[in-house]
Amino acid sequence: MLDRDEDILKAAEDWQKAGHGVALATVVETWGSAPRPAGSSLVINDDGTFLGSVSGGCVEGAVVTEAMDVIQSGKPRMLEFGVADETAWNVGLSCGGTIRVFVEKVG
Amino acid sequence: MKLEILHELNAERAARRPAILVTDTESGEQRLVKAKDFAGDPLRAELEKQLRMGKSANVEVGGRKLFLNVYAPTAKLVIIGAVHISQALAPLARSLGYDVTVVDPRTAFASPERFPDIPLVAEWPDTALPPLNVDAYTAFVAVTHDPKIDDPALLHAFERGCFYIGALGSRKTHAKRGDRLRAQGAKESDIARIHAPIGLAIGAVSPSEIAVSIMAEITAVLRLPPKEKEEAA
């Protein structure tokens, strides 16, 4: 991938080594006009600090909340956001696309 | 993601070596496959295809849903010659996602006025190229028309195994270039790697059109499977 993003994976490693709980959220599937392609990722630490994006800003808030649970439980989970989903619509993937986001703990 | 996997992945990325992270999206199980290990992998065909496309994707293998996350280095384009074609080529390549550097020892050519926002190195190739870390994820074009500049640059590109090497000039010019490079120790297989005349044959006339034909050729070499690549060239 021609990737000019900030170094998300480097941050994931650095934060983990600094003693933070860290989760990684990755877009694994998109339908319709999803704003970020599969493989895009967001790294979240237990402060709620995050870097990167999975949707260009639409659903990051919801992903960060879920990531906190994943850091706690250590169990990966799959999230789906799209127009068909009432909640997702509320958090605003208004571009009309649908995305699936895999959230996993680092470490 | 296990910390060892993350650490290994970051090491591959830092070294500009491609790798693919395979995740079973139901169990969360993961493994990292480095490009050098693709050949012996059960997912070889899928891995090779996704890397070539530079695209992450889901595949279903034996009832398991796997996500292949592709980590390929940002492709570089090194342009030898701060000429008129390069003024069109550099911004075009950048818009296609390449990290672009222009090299030309002639300071009248390699001026920031002619190349706003493009990294320029106004040095001879022998000095300019080693720090640029030219590698297998680099496309390399020589467009000065001046053998004193183009030839040593091309020898460097051979050595570094660039995925694309192109040089400006007619068939006649290119035949002479082949003789000169051979005399300087280039192998026949190296010379055969040069795309010359440069660019796809689209009847390009203006510098901008030539830039399009060059980027089209580079894209074909980067993205097409080997067989189709031969047909396009």
From TrEMBL, chain A:
Name of the protein in question: XdhC- CoxI domain-containing protein
Coiled coil regions in record: none
Source organism superkingdom: Bacteria
Species the sequence originates in: Bradyrhizobium cosmicum
Residues covered by the XdhC- CoxI domain: 15-82
InterPro entries xrefs: MoCofactor_Util/Proc, XdhC_CoxI
Automatic annotation (TrEMBL), chain B:
InterPro entries: MoCofactor_Util/Proc (IPR052698), XdhC_Rossmann_dom (IPR027051)
Superkingdom, taxonomy of origin: Bacteria
Domain annotation XdhC Rossmann: ranges: 77-218
Gene3D superfamilies noted in UniProt: NAD(P)-binding Rossmann-like Domain (3.40.50.720)
Protein name: XdhC/CoxF family protein
Species: Bradyrhizobium nitroreducens
